Amino acid sequence: MASMRDAMKRLEIIYTECAPEAIEEKNTDASLDEFSRIRKKLHADVKSVRQALKERQDVMRGGCTTTESAEASYKIRVMIKTLKEQTARMQEIVDKEGRKKRPKDPALVAEHKEILELCKQHVDECENLEKRRQADGYAADRIELFSGGGNNTNGGDGVSGAGHGDNDDHNDPFTHSDLPDIDVEEDLKAIKNRNKDINQDLENIGVGVAKLKEIALDMGQELENQNQNLDNLDHKVEGALDHVDNINITMKKTLDGVMKGDKFMVNCILLCVVLALVAFISTQFMH
């Protein structure tokens, strides 16, 4: 039964073969000469070998079994063998170009020789990392055997101190090399694609910012409308209060007038009573 890692690798292979980018890359490769195609392929394969070495390192630190370690090492050795076959074919092409008495482009022939030498150095570096792992692994096994099976503080990683204490890729012997890249154009293309993705993200962010600005403007306009409505309401309330004040003043004047009439009527009644008393008293004295 295939492991999840193998299944993921197969899916990655299917995607890289069927994706539009892969089809475009195949069309681009069709326009290259054999040396350039091998160089481009070798550039990608060297990165794959380095990544495989790092993955094996991480797995062994986690305490993998001997079977898993042997399987990973075998796959890496097969990949390195493929690299050697590619450099051998590049050597044949360079030798064939060198045998020509009058090459069409002597500068290109010299460039191919330099590229071939660089490719061999990368392959040798990968092979040395693999051999270094094996030698250190055997030494770690002997130390563990003679120490009575004690714990291995390095976790059998094979490369002393590699990747410990500093997560910077520039300090990782598996993913970083002091040698120049085999195919700078490929790296520039990858950088260009990353820049393209970044520009697309920035464009999407710009669209989002524009929408947020539009929403903010709409909110500002809505707030302005609400403030205008509140001002209108304040004016109406002030008018209603003025009207109430006028009504109160009118009612007060009316009540004041009514009170004056009542006083006049009371005074008249009192006057009539006084006159009636005076008349009564007068009649009594006359009899």
Automatic annotation (TrEMBL):
Keywords: Coiled coil, Golgi apparatus, Membrane, Protein transport, Transmembrane, Transmembrane helix, Transport. Residues 147-180 are annotated as: Disordered. Residues 192-254 form the T-SNARE coiled-coil homology domain. InterPro entries: SNARE, Syntaxin, T_SNARE_dom. Residues 147-164 have a biased composition (Gly residues). One of its GO terms (biological process) is vesicle fusion. GO terms for molecular function: SNAP receptor activity; SNARE binding. Residues 209-243 form a coiled coil. It comes from the Eukaryota. It is a single-pass type IV membrane protein. It is found in: Golgi apparatus membrane. Belongs to the syntaxin family. This is t-SNARE coiled-coil homology domain-containing protein. It comes from Batrachochytrium dendrobatidis (strain JAM81 / FGSC 10211).
